[in-house]
Amino acid sequence: MPRAYNQTDGVNRGINNLKRMAYFAEVVEAGSFTAAAERLGITKAVVSQQVARLEEAFETTLLVRTTRSVRPTEEGRAFTRIARASCHRPRRPLMAWRPTIARPRACCG
Predict the structure, then answer these.
(1) Distance CA 89, CA 10 (A)
(2) Taking all residues of the chain, what is their mean pLDDT, rounded to a whole number?
(3) What pLDDT, on the 0 to 100 scale, is given for residue 95?
(4) Which contacts (CB < 8 Å, 24+ apart) does range 30-33 have?
């Protein structure tokens, strides 16, 4: 039975993809899943799994994996620039955002 569309599903997928993009960019920068995991403070398995899910989401291979190395494909090199930019942009609006505090109004003038 198909699930009903839930507006938060899209938000969660977007947030998950941002995390995955950050993991992917770290793998490319670090040169290995192990080094990326150490930098991120998570396990190698999590990094590998999340990058694989990112590849599934975008229906492309972003990394060439061998027993000795990891390197980005042509699509992966192009995606690295996008991933790095996307991982930094959300911070600007969040850093500038300040919650509005509802101030009580004087009811009796």
Answers:
(1) 19
(2) 77
(3) 45
(4) 31/69, 31/70, 32/69, 32/70, 33/70
